[in-house]
Write a structure and sequence with these properties.
The structure is a single chain. By secondary structure, this protein is of the alpha/beta class. About 30% of the residues lie in helices and about 25% in strands. The chain is built from ten helices and 17 strands. The strands form five sheets. A six-stranded mixed sheet has the order 1-2-6-3-7-16, sandwiched between helices. A four-stranded antiparallel sheet has the order 11-13-9-14, with helices on one face. A three-stranded antiparallel sheet has the order 4-5-17. Strand 1 and strand 2 (about 70-75) form a beta hairpin. Helix 2 (about 10-20) crosses helix 4 (about 125-140), helix 6 (about 225-235) runs antiparallel to helix 7 and helix 8 (about 330-345) packs across helix 10 (about 385-400). The chain is elongated and about 85 Å long.
Length: about 400
Amino acid sequence: MLPQEFLLNQRSKIVVLETLLTSIPAIAPEGNGDGEKDKCDALEKWLYDNGFTNIERFEAKDERVSCGYRPSLVVTIPGKDDSQHIWVMAHMDVVPTGDLSLWKTDPWTLVEKDGKIFGRGVEDNQQGLCSAVFAALYYIKNNITPSKTIKLLFAADEENGSQYGAIWLINNTTLFRKNDLIFIPDGGDSEGRTIEIAEKNLLWLSMHVIGKQTHGSRPDNGANACLAASALSLELHNLEKIFDKKDSLFEPDYSTFQPTKREKNVDSINIIPGEDTFCMDCRILPCYSLDEVLKKVDECCRKIEKEYNVKIEYTTPQKSESPATSMDSPAAQKLAQAIRKVHQLEPKFIGIGGGTVGAEFRRKGIDAVVWSTLDDQAHQPNEYCIIDNLIKDSLTMIELFK
């Protein structure tokens, strides 16, 4: 049976699996949830019931959830050649619903309408999960042995940093090999054209400025921490003029240093604050190292300390840098070839300012690419998945597995 015919015959079964997964919230403790266990149990049973036999379960300890762990599943379909594994990684966890008044339907009850399915998680990331499952199922049901061993990873904790999911698996197992190809169907565009191969380096700064509080009428008796913090935020923002290279792979094509969150300082207008705290979100082109950026941050701090007679301390709530996957790499070229064949489109390689789990693999020297065909409904009310997009992604994966 041809892949497209097989998947069209499985359409109702795809909706059934999406319905099952949507009905079981898998929210991290950070979102006041109890983790992925119930969803993982249901998915594991469904996989066994539908012909998958080689399933491993990995459990990262997390005392914040009632079962005490965060589970991930690895499904294997042995290939003719086991020297290189082809991975598809999706995640089981979802984000909270947000304001329920913005939803037109119950987020945890799948609704199918006009070729779309609605519910929390149906796109992020159950579309990727289900497309991988049914691509692998094509090989199982038709007794076809893929050329390379296929590995499907259904991970925990992607929405909150992957410490109990992919990162834990990378650091605590021997699952991954340097020559493996990692495909992550968790970001893309409505055509399925873009292949994400790189991320900007991420640097979050929490800047704490310490001056001297005084009465609003006597600024000469104090050191205005708010004024110094404002000057510092401009100094840091102006680092965009120092780290000024451009890279057309990204949008925007330059490094950004943006002040964002500001903490409360004093309770009254007539008090000059002695302390002020603000944050910066910096997305830096990978041609610059974070070490060289932080040296300039320190220089900015010393300048403002001297000018405003304050002391400045800071922390880095997030700090992440990773190499790019080359567009000439086997993973990138294999996916590009599959897109050309299935989508009849010329793929476009891109970099992004956000962070994905792909960076964790790239840091370990394993090529990873992120791609999918979607309307980017992640984290939105009335999240939906277009069923035809899911099927098209599954066709693309069947091509990848050849």
